[in-house]
Amino acid sequence: MGSGMAQVLAQAGHDVHCTDVAEDVIAKARTRVTTGRYGFERAVERGKLTRADADAALARLRFSTGFEDAVGSAELVLEAVPEKLDLKIRVFRDLDRVAPEDCILASNSSGFPLAALASATNRPAQVIVWHWASPPAVMKFAEIVVRPETRPDVIETVKQLALDCGKRPVVVQDNPMAWGYVANRIYAAMLMEASRVVAEGTATHAEVNQLMVDCFGWPVGPFAMVEGAQKGFSEGGQ
Ligand SMILES: NC(=O)c1ccc[n+]([C@@H]2O[C@H](COP(=O)([O-])OP(=O)(O)OC[C@H]3O[C@@H](n4cnc5c(N)ncnc54)[C@H](O)[C@@H]3O)[C@@H](O)[C@H]2O)c1
After folding, report:
1. CA 82 / ligand 1 centre spacing (Å)
2. If pLDDT is split at 50, 70 and 90, which confidence band does 234 have?
3. Chain segment 77-105, per-residue pLDDT in tens
4. Could you count the other beta carbons within 10 Å of the beta carbon of residue 77?
């Protein structure tokens, strides 16, 4: 997700420093952004991006394992480490220590309460969730999660950034008692019922998928959606 989000932000005109703890991930991220399935080269081939715009966007991207170098002068940090709460809290503590005072700290968490991330810092009013969908270059989804304490200018900045990236931002309230914000909570409820239908022998996975596609015009059924999120929606993923 990190490289995809970095690519979109660079294409929208922002200088982006993409960082990771693993050297090999950094190398793969660069390849993915340039020649990957949703990368700049394919966008140029498909006529979605001019060569000049692709080159300019690539020039705005830096990749390195240097955490302090990446964060030290940032106006906004978008965190996309694995979905483990203890790890995210540790990363937010480090970000708070290193990032400039005015910097906004955003998370692409799939569902951890914003309250838990914000309270790991000394700048809770500048911490926000900006939840993207995969692949970032394609999906318009931008679920922005806020609390009553979140500074209005922080919300406006992130919302505007999402719009600049061609997304359709929706600002929702944090619920510290629930995992999944809005999209993933409703998705999980649907998946639970679909699994119950299969477990009781009413229909097979394939039949549930087919019925939901044909009845509601979904691109894929609920179980195909899980598979797609794990492996990519067609051969090779991103
Ligand atoms: N994959 C999706 O479809 C999807 C969609 C929406 C949101 N998300 C969320 O985005 C986040 C990232 O998901 P992903 O699928 O890209 O995970 P991923 O495991 O592919 O990538 C996470 C990266 O974080 C790096 N990392 C670990 N600890 C780090 C640290 N301390 N500092 C810097 N980098 C560190 C890892 O090396 C890894 O490359 C998760 O919170 C996930 O729930 C994922």
Report:
1. 4
2. low
3. 999 999 999 999 999 999 999 999 999 99
4. 22
Residue of the CA atom closest to atom 19 of ligand 1 = 82
Burial of 137 (0-12, 13-18, 19+ CB in 10 A): buried
CB neighbours of 97 closer than 8 A, spacing ≥ 6? Answer: none
Residues with CB under 6 A from ligand 1: 1-2, 20-22, 25, 80-83, 91, 108-110, 132-134, 229
Question: Do 114 and 138 touch, CB atoms closer than 8 A?
Answer: no
The full 3-state SS of 15-31, as one line of letters, equals: CEEEECCCHHHHHHHHH
pTM of the model: 0.94
Which structure tokens are listed for 12? 């929208």
What are the chain's domains? 2-173 (3.40.50.720), 183-231 (no CATH)
How far, in Å, is the centroid of ligand 1 from the Cα of 1? Answer: 6
Residue 204 alpha carbon to ligand 1 centre in Å: 32
> 181: CA distance to ligand 1 center in Å?
18
